[in-house]
Amino acid sequence: MLRSAGFEVQLYASAEAFLQETVAPKPDVVLTDIQMLGMSGLDLQSILKTRAPALPLMFMTAFPEDALRKRALDAGAICFLSKPFKATELLYWIEKALSA
């Protein structure tokens, strides 16, 4: 869906794989899940705050707990989307992140 909207998309098998990538260009925005195998999205956010503090980070989750939402947003996330969400909602937040 994002490619059909004109975005260049790079997928990673894990947060660790994303952090180890040295060849790909720097992303304009990161969309990550909260719960993943290995490192969580919140752990990734913590590392990215140090490595790339201006990089917009967006969360999505099937487990929209208020405490997780608050923690992610308080730490600077652009948004916290609860699955399922509409494509228009995702596109709105991506455009907002890119224009910030």
Q: N-to-C SSE series?
A: HEHEHEH
Structural class: alpha/beta
What's the CATH H-level homologous superfamily? Response regulator
CATH architecture assignment name: 3-Layer(aba) Sandwich
Major sheet attributes: 3 strands, parallel
Stretches where pLDDT is under 50 for at least 5 consecutive residues are none
Quick one: how many beta strands? 3
Query: If you compute it from the alpha carbons, what radius of gyration comes out, rounded to the nearest whole angstrom?
Result: 13 Å
Q: What's the domain count?
A: 1
Strand order of the largest sheet: 1-2-3
CATH class: Alpha Beta
Structure description:
It contains four helices and three strands; from the N terminus they run H-E-H-E-H-E-H. The protein has 100 residues and is of the alpha/beta class. Helix 3 links the parallel strand 2 (57-61) and strand 3. It has helices at residues 15-20, 41-51, 66-74, 87-99; strands spanning 30-33, 57-61, 79-82. It has a three-stranded parallel sheet with strand order 1-2-3, with helices on both faces. The two termini are 22 Å apart. 20% of the residues are buried. The protein has one domain (28-99): Rossmann fold (3-Layer(aba) Sandwich).
